[in-house]
Write a structure and sequence with these properties.
It contains eleven helices and 26 strands. It is α+β, with helices and mostly antiparallel strands and 420 residues long. It folds into two domains: 3-131, 2,3-Dihydroxybiphenyl 1,2-Dioxygenase, domain 1 (Roll), CATH 3.10.180; 142-418, Metallo-beta-lactamase, Chain A. The strands form five sheets. An eight-stranded mixed beta sheet has the order 2-3-4-1-5-8-7-6. A seven-stranded mixed beta sheet has the order 9-10-13-14-15-18-19. Strands 20-21-22-23-24-25-26 form a seven-stranded mixed beta sheet. It is elongated and about 80 Å long. The two termini are 37 Å apart.
Length: 420
């Protein structure tokens, strides 16, 4: 059992006085409170480095916290140790004859599973075990009518990238509250291409990483191919052969590696009936990589497309198909672009790596991978402001749980209202 300190629980009788000390006097950030109905308590988490303080406010006179304060007064109530598998931890403790308060885990704050060890077994300390809420990726295909268009969110499976690289200068204590890294500091990410159907045909925007990977790189990026694009297209009643156009936001491996596939010793277009729409300047950058971007531009992902004669190059921003408009953002790569889906008086926005996940909806949360981060910041501020004010539906290509939603803002705080 590997356990680390998650937080210290502090019973408080006067929450306003407690906040005046921890928030106002010490200057610590206090997260929005959470009601834990099963324990009749309101929890206020205060991040401090890699751990937190949990200010516990009773919401009923017969709750455990209320009884504790009546008997002992306010103060430290328990310490919480975070474990990966709470059921296995409890089984190990039972085997060693450790006295428990909870034989089975129960729901706790932040969607976690918790269980308490009796103070008599821990030298007078009430110890809580906590298994954090796990990200449960939703990789099902999702269809949405959008004016004269049909939008279908599909997926090419899961992978992992370094959490620090995904959030750039944002400190780990902040970003790990949004997504917890594994023991190699990698966070889970999805690859969510978008299929667009119109009277003009069927297009896929980006196409995931594909399956040309060797064992070494599969391990580095933790590719999970138990569900991939072929499965997702089939769920939507489609196939690779039914795609007529493939549009690239940029040519990084996790966005356009799935444009080609191996056929024996050859590498061929994955979508056999499709024309591939690629910005000419992005092609130039991708085929002339430098030390900073060479690991992301893998030539087998796209060069065979030109050899097969299936690429249509374009250069300017604008409409590529009725209702489908591209706009260069730069930032992430020099020619990175986003895609607007406009029909029936509504606008949806496929943001690619401008806003890769819902955790990136704050302006300054920018990836360390971006070649031109200040350009990312300038464009991102404008795009998010427009998305909030004009109610643009935003597609998040790398979020493991939310495919699309509206960015909402209240009192300076942002969140995503999930649609798909």
């Amino acid at each position: 059992m590997k356990a680390v300190l998650d937080h210290i629980g502090i019973a408080v009788g006067d929450i306003d006085a407690a906040l005046a000390f921890y928030r106002d006097a010490l200057g610590l950030e206090v997260e929005a409170p959470e009601e834990v109905q099963s324990q009749r308590v309101r929890a206020h988490f205060v991040p401090v480095g890699q751990s937190s303080l949990e200010l516990l406010e009773a919401t009923a006179p017969d709750s455990a916290i209320a009884k504790y304060i009546d008997k002992r007064g306010p103060g430290i109530h328990h310490i919480t140790l975070r474990v990966e598998n709470i059921a296995a931890a409890l089984a190990q403790l039972k085997q060693r004859g450790v006295r428990l308060v909870d034989d089975e885990p129960r729901p706790g704050a932040e969607g976690a599973l918790v269980a308490f060890i009796h103070p008599s077994a821990a030298h007078g300390v009430l110890v809580e075990l906590k298994e954090p809420a796990r990200i449960r990726p939703d990789l099902s295909a999702k269809r949405l009518a959008w004016g004269d268009l049909q939008l279908i969110s599909v997926n090419d499976g899961l992978f992992r990238l370094d959490g620090g690289a995904m959030f750039g200068v944002v400190p780990r204590p902040l970003w790990e509250r949004k997504t917890r890294p594994d023991d190699r500091n990698r966070i889970p990410l999805a690859m969510r291409p978008l299929v667009v159907e119109g009277a003009w045909g069927r297009m896929i925007i980006d196409c995931g990483a594909g399956d040309k990977w060797d064992a070494k790189h599969t391990d580095i990026y933790a590719f999970d191919r138990s569900r991939h694009l072929d499965h997702s297209l089939a769920d939507a009643g489609l196939s690779a052969g039914s795609i007529e156009f493939a549009l690239a936001t940029h040519l990084h491996f996790d966005h356009f590696g799935g444009a080609t596939r191996r056929e024996g010793a050859a590498i061929v277009p994955r979508f056999g009936n499709a024309r591939y729409l690629i910005r000419a300047s992005e092609w130039d950058d991708a085929t002339h990589p430098h030390e900073r971007n060479r690991a992301s531009y893998l030539q087998d992902d796209f060069v065979p497309l030109k050899s097969a004669g299936v690429v249509d190059f374009y250069q300017e921003d604008g409409v590529v198909k009725p209702g489908v408009r591209v706009e260069r953002t730069g930032g992430h790569t020099g020619q990175h672009q986003i895609v607007y889906l406009e029909s029936g008086g509504k606008t949806a926005l496929f943001t690619a790596d401008l806003i890769p996940t819902t955790a990136h909806i704050q302006d300054a949360w920018i990836m360390g991978y971006d070649l031109f981060p200040m350009q990312t910041l300038a464009v991102k501020k404008r795009v998010i402001r427009e998305a909030i004010d004009r109610e643009h539906l935003v597609f998040f290509e790398h979020d493991p749980c939310i495919a699309a939603g509206y960015i909402r803002e209240k009192d300076g705080r942002r969140h995503v209202e999930q649609v798909l």
